[in-house]
Amino acid sequence: MLLKTLREEVLDANLELVRRGLVLYTFGNASGIDRAEGLVAIKPSGVPYPELTPAHMVISDLTGKIVEGNLRPSSDLATHLELYKQFSNTGGVAHTHSEFATAWAQAETPIPCFGTTHADYFHGPVPVTERLKSEEIERDYEQETGNAICRTFSRLDPDAVPAILVAGHAPFCWGKNAAEAAHNAVILEYVARMAYHTLLINAESQPLSRELRDKHFLRKHGRNAYYGQVKS
Ligand SMILES: [Zn+2]
Question: Which residues are known catalytic residues?
């Protein structure tokens, strides 16, 4: 069996989405990539989560050719592949229809950075894609979804904002591996729920100051990070 460890990591990332209440039934999917091999492991389409084992994960190359696995891959595979091709530091991708993040996606409204919880993970608002054009939906819907995500990031750093809301659809998140992508999906849902409540309490709530936002993001990420313990 190819990529045993990656299969296990990807399975665990998918199960984490279930454990944290982010998926109903078979919604959602997480994947991971082995950059050296150029191969992606992703959840199969439509198999109930309790039945999933590492052997069920489908291995694809970056063109979408199935290299190992008897099951069909998640129907969103082509979206994941576009993110791996265009975001060079990305090692894992997670997609859910979690309630609050999806509500913001449906409202086609970026999630403002109202607090330090948000700023610890996302360096600025979580953006929304443009709507797909009808020919994009008809031509290659999943790949064009990936392209729409990457176009939105043409002026943004995907390592600084590892999440997006696909207009009218739901969030995609990513990270250095599948576990981090799933973790970011969990935090995104938490941040989306808090932003909703913030606006309910005060519809005039303002985003964090640039100084506080930068302080929180940069103490956890990048060259000068100092949050947590030094990794030996
Ligand atoms: Zn979806």
Answer: 120, 227
